[in-house]
C-alpha cells in the first residue's frame, strides 16, 4: 500500500510537501490578513481596466486603404476562408483567455480569502500574467502579427512597447498568459503525483522518481508543455488568430499562411512554462522556490507577499529573457525564412520589415514596423503562394 497520503493532495495549486513539512508548517508564513488580497486584485483590475479603456478593434492607423477583399468574413477582407467555416475565432480565443483566467483567479482567490493567506496558486497566476510585459518583444522578434479583430491597444498609444508588435498588442494576451502558463503547470503536477504514487506502489519509497523528485518533475514538465505549446500555437495559426509571417525551418505547412514553428518556438517558449511549473514545487521543508529566494531578500521581513511575488515573477522572467535571446538570434543572424503567404489580414498593412513580401511580389501596402534595427537581414527562400 502506498505511503503517500493522497488525502493531502489538493486537486489544484501545486505539489504537496512531504508529511514532515506539512506537520511542521511554514515558519515564514505571514500573519493572516485579507488586506493584501484587495490590493492585489485592485492592481490587476486597474491595469486591465486601463487597457480596456483605450482598446479598440480593427486596423485603425494601420489600415490598408485599398484591400483586395479575396474573402469577406463578417465584413472584414481576408485572404483565406475561415478555418472550418467558423467566423468567430477571435471572439472564441478571447473567451478562452478571459474565461480561463477568471476561473484561476476565482478559485485561488477564494482559497486565499478563506485561509487569510496568499494561496501559492494565486501568486503564480499573477506572476504568469506579469509576463505580458515581454509580449511585444516576443511578437517583434518572432514576426508574430495578430488578427486586428482582437480587442487591442491602438497603434501609437504606447511607443517603444505595444508599437513593437508587428500589428497590434491584444488586450486578452494579458489573461491568456495566465492560462497558457498555469494550466499546463497544474496538469504536469497532477500527472507527476500519480506517477510518484504508481512508482511507490510498484517499487516502494526508494523508486527513482521518489529519489529524484525535481529531475523527474522537469522531465514530465518537458513532455507535457512541449505538446501543449505546439498544439496551442498550431491552433492559433490555422485559425489565423496569429501567424508567423516569416520564420526559419523546420516548419509545419512552411510557406502557407498557417505555417507554424515545429522546433524553435516550442523549445524556447516552453522555458517559461517549465519555470512556471517549478513555482508549484515544494522542497522537503514545504517551501516553494520563490519562498526560498524571497526569504533571503531584506524586504521579506516587511513585505513578505510582495517580495515573494517579485521572486516568482523574476523566475519566469529569466526564462522568458532566455527565450527572447534565442528568438533574437534567429532574427538577427540572416536565416533563410519562409513567408506566410498569402498575408491573411487584407485590411491591414503587410508587416514587411525585411522587404521579403515585396521581393515575393505580394500585393498590399507594406510597412517596416517599429524597431526595424536588423543588422543582418533574413533572406527569402523563394517560395511562391
Automatic annotation (TrEMBL):
<feature type="region of interest" description="Disordered">
    <location>
        <begin position="362"/>
        <end position="385"/>
    </location>
</feature>
<keyword id="KW-1133">Transmembrane helix</keyword>
<feature type="transmembrane region" description="Helical">
    <location>
        <begin position="309"/>
        <end position="330"/>
    </location>
</feature>
<feature type="transmembrane region" description="Helical">
    <location>
        <begin position="263"/>
        <end position="281"/>
    </location>
</feature>
<feature type="transmembrane region" description="Helical">
    <location>
        <begin position="122"/>
        <end position="141"/>
    </location>
</feature>
<dbReference type="InterPro" id="IPR033459">
    <property type="entry name" value="AveC-like"/>
</dbReference>
<keyword id="KW-0472">Membrane</keyword>
<dbReference type="Pfam" id="PF17198">
    <property type="entry name" value="AveC_like"/>
</dbReference>
<feature type="transmembrane region" description="Helical">
    <location>
        <begin position="36"/>
        <end position="55"/>
    </location>
</feature>
<keyword id="KW-0812">Transmembrane</keyword>
<feature type="transmembrane region" description="Helical">
    <location>
        <begin position="213"/>
        <end position="233"/>
    </location>
</feature>
<feature type="transmembrane region" description="Helical">
    <location>
        <begin position="171"/>
        <end position="192"/>
    </location>
</feature>
<protein>
    <recommendedName>
        <fullName>Spirocyclase, AveC family</fullName>
    </recommendedName>
</protein>
<feature type="transmembrane region" description="Helical">
    <location>
        <begin position="92"/>
        <end position="110"/>
    </location>
</feature>
Amino acid at each position: 500500500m502506498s505511503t503517500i497520503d493522497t488525502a493531502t493532495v489538493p486537486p489544484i495549486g501545486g505539489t504537496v510537501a512531504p508529511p514532515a513539512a506539512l506537520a511542521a508548517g511554514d515558519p515564514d508564513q505571514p500573519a493572516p490578513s485579507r488586506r493584501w488580497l484587495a490590493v492585489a486584485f485592485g492592481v490587476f483590475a486597474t491595469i486591465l481596466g486601463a487597457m480596456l479603456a483605450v482598446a479598440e478593434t480593427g486596423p485603425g492607423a494601420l489600415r490598408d486603404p485599398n484591400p483586395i477583399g479575396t474573402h469577406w468574413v463578417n465584413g472584414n477582407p481576408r485572404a483565406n476562408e475561415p478555418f472550418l467555416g467558423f467566423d468567430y475565432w477571435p471572439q472564441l480565443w478571447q473567451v478562452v483567455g478571459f474565461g480561463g483566467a477568471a476561473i484561476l483567479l476565482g478559485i485561488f482567490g477564494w482559497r486565499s480569502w478563506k485561509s487569510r493567506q496568499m494561496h501559492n496558486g494565486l501568486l503564480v497566476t499573477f506572476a504568469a500574467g506579469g509576463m505580458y510585459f515581454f509580449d511585444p518583444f516576443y511578437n517583434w522578434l518572432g514576426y508574430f502579427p495578430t488578427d486586428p479583430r482582437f480587442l487591442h491597444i491602438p497603434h501609437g498609444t504606447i511607443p517603444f512597447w505595444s508599437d513593437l508588435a508587428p500589428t497590434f498588442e491584444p488586450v486578452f494576451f494579458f489573461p491568456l498568459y495566465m492560462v497558457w502558463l498555469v494550466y499546463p503547470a497544474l496538469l504536469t503536477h497532477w500527472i507527476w503525483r500519480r506517477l510518484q504514487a504508481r512508482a511507490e506502489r510498484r517499487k516502494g519509497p526508494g523508486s527513482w522518481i521518489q529519489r529524484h523528485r525535481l529531475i523527474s518533475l522537469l522531465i514530465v514538465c518537458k513532455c507535457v508543455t512541449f505538446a501543449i505549446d505546439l498544439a496551442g500555437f498550431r491552433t492559433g495559426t490555422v485559425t489565423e488568430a496569429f501567424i508567423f509571417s516569416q520564420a526559419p525551418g523546420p516548419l509545419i505547412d512552411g510557406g502557407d499562411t498557417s505555417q507554424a514553428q515545429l522546433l524553435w518556438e516550442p523549445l524556447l517558449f516552453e522555458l517559461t512554462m517549465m519555470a512556471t511549473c517549478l513555482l508549484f514545487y515544494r522542497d522537503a521543508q514545504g517551501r516553494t522556490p520563490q519562498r526560498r529566494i524571497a526569504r533571503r531578500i531584506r524586504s521579506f521581513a516587511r513585505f513578505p507577499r510582495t517580495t515573494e511575488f517579485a521572486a516568482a515573477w523574476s523566475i519566469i522572467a529569466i526564462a522568458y529573457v532566455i527565450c527572447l535571446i534565442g528568438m533574437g538570434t534567429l532574427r538577427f543572424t540572416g536565416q533563410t525564412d519562409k513567408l506566410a503567404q498569402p498575408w491573411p489580414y487584407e485590411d491591414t498593412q503587410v508587416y514587411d520589415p525585411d522587404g521579403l513580401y515585396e521581393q515575393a511580389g505580394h500585393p498590399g501596402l507594406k510597412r517596416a514596423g517599429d524597431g526595424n534595427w536588423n543588422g543582418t537581414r533574413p533572406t527569402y527562400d523563394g517560395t511562391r503562394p
